[in-house]
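For reference, the entry.
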Amino acid sequence: MESEVITGGPKRFIREKLRMPDGEDIDWYYVDTPHSVMIVPITADGDVVLIRQYRYNLKKYTLELPAGTVMRGESPRDAALRELWEETGFKLARESTLVDLGDYFVLPSETNRNAHLFLAPSVLVGTTAPPGDTLIEKYFDMSVCSLPLTEALGKIGHEIRGIETAAALLLAGNAVKSGGA
């Protein structure tokens, strides 16, 4: 199998030459990405903390959960906590634990991206204004907002249109409802 990196960077575009069962050769393109995390932070009042940000590729604002890339040598859990702090200014209280909601492939026909989803239930400590990261977020128009979990669930398909955020909220809602959080 022949493989070529078309563009490097944190998100690499790859072309692989594949031989199909009938003997035909085709080019297969996909995005090779590091693992990512997304966290559903819920305050003691039951509000979900969300990020409103402008997405240049969509040319519109989105309402999303804190998320980002797992850095080399970092566990998904540590990455989720780092992203929570960078994007919201919140940290998990010492007596609280993260609930692992599983890991899932994101758009498996186009990328090998694997997203680890977590729930941070009801014990968050606001520390500072969100510092953001130094690579990309400093360029984004981002703000933090919070609303009740039931209201956030009601925004799926309307203001919340990202499938990762929708899935994470639905999984968190099920965990909270079943007492798993």
About this structure: The chain has a mean pLDDT of 88. Residues 51 and 100 are 21 Å apart (CA to CA). The first helix runs from residue 76 to 88. Helices lie at 76-88, 149-154, 163-177.
